[in-house]
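=== RUN LOG ===
request id: a7f3
mode: sequence -> structure
chains: 1
length: 647
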Amino acid sequence: MALVIDTFTALRPGSPVRPGGNAGGMSLFKALGHPMVARLAQALVARLASLGPVAVVDAHGQAVPFAALYPLDGVELASLYVQQSEEIGHSRLGLVAHPITGLRADRPETVLVASFDAERMVAAVRALVGPDPLVLSFDDLRLPADMLANPRLYLDPLNFATNFALFRDSEGLHTRVTSANYWGLHGAKAPRLFLALHDEAGNSLAQWTEELPVAGGGFTIDSAEVRTRFGLDAFTGSLFIHALGAAGHDVVKYALDLYGAEASALTCSHDANAWPADLYAGLPAPAPGEQVLLWIQNSHPVAIPDGGVGLNAMGSDEVVWLEGEIPAFGTRAVDVGALLPNLAWPDQVEVQAGRYFVRPRYEITDAKGRRHMAHANVERTDLKPDPDLPGLGAIMGKGYIMPLPVLPLADFASLGLPTPMTTAQTELPISVSLIDASGQTVAEHFMGRLARSASVPVDVDAWLAEAALQLPSGFGHLEFRYDFRDGGSGDGWLHALGRYTQRSSGHRADTSFGAHIYNTALVYKDEPQSYNGKPPGLTTRLFLRLGPTYETLCHLIYPASLPWHDASSTRLELKDGTGRTVATEQVAIPCGGSVHLRMRTLFGVAALAAAGANAYVVVDDRTCRLFGFHGLIDGDRAFCLDHMFGF
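=== RESULT ===
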């Protein structure tokens, strides 16, 4: 059974539910499940258990999520009262709901007002029961006021700008979380970070607060520094990150890099989505000689029960359920091949997650010990086929585009794999285009109406060889798009995985993302999306992290559903750790084309050195929406790659 909590919501009232973006989801489960709150909530449950019969006033629907995270098995629940008359007679917590006015006659001795910001509700209860009964509320679980962006509205999403990172410092590996104080750019006065580190068993290793730099300043959380600061042994676990005093964005966005003494350990991943989902997909099965580990980070103060999480082949109903509990805030590496031994790349795996953990990472290690890490994606459960999509091309041109880089062919092999990403997708009617950096379409291929269980990769090397074609620029990108020439249906949540292999080393990287409508002034539902504000999203502001020792690469794509500006006006700003601009370079990307950049070549070694520690690059364009990928490269020995984030 899935955990009974609501985890994501619409970006604005009345809009379609769209996970991710700049919205961090529902705030109630974050308020209840915060590591600092867990001890208080457990103490509240223990106190309730010692008090005899308890009446619950659940005016705002917060009692059931609380009980999901803090089971009330030892509490004698005597009665339940609701404020909305429409809810009278409904059942929750094993009780039938009575009108709150019934408190006057029932006169319970102990009342739990299951709400935050409960002052008015407590006053209403007192008016009904008088001064004698003990009245408790969730306000006993509040974080200190100085941790809140808006103390007057406790469940304001900006009070809970949180996320989790897979964090480890062991076996010659260390981790770096890199981001910038973008909240300051949106008006946050003095934001800072609360951090809580848990080991694999969920034990608390450290809790601390860090000041953030000035608005726009970069910051890094390095596992080696954390380990030294707190005198820790080697660890693998979960880092909880809470941006205090946030403004503009209620999501903690970051780049996650994993380094090691050996070049084969160089790998990276994008931030996790800030809320747990029912399902994840885009998890590849292992190729021969590989091990694929799925890293599950329990994101709650309650254990994931035995059989609470499962894996199945995409398109199959046969689920293999994990044995044994995963402790509260614990982390477990699950060997995908051991659970599903009959699957092999390019087969895909669906994760039955039950809302227990945020978007998970997977880590692939090949027979030569080379490793790379990437993330699965949220599989939507709320979408249905959109009957308007087949006719959308008449006004939206290409419509939804899922772009993936084709890295420089001399150095890399590039592959794209469509990945089902909603429960409504019984098929994927799609085409793929191979597009040169100049924007010239070199080749197109109708992939057909792919079955949900199908895994059909597009190998760029093989495609070019079979068609006797070349990319004139030597690099470019793939575009996956809906194609209804033979019928079929779609829901607007088209995803694909990109897999890249460095020819010299055999080192690999995966990245994945979903389709959007790009660069048209005409809006369809919430597309084209904007990094900040309402659609259409016709500007770009991307974060490009810089590696401390490795060269940084950047692949920018200018997708366009309809013809837009002939070329982009893209500015790359090198920022130092205080957010000050050290150097600026301008590039023009042809409409429908791409550019591949190396930061040492673009800015020069001297400028990068002058930028110093915690430097980063902002990709800024006021004319169009770009889609970007960034990575690190260690000469011809190793590299990593994932998509960028905007703020």
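=== NOTES ===
The first strand starts at residue 54 and ends at 57.
Residues 149 and 245 are 4 Å apart (CA to CA).
=== END ===
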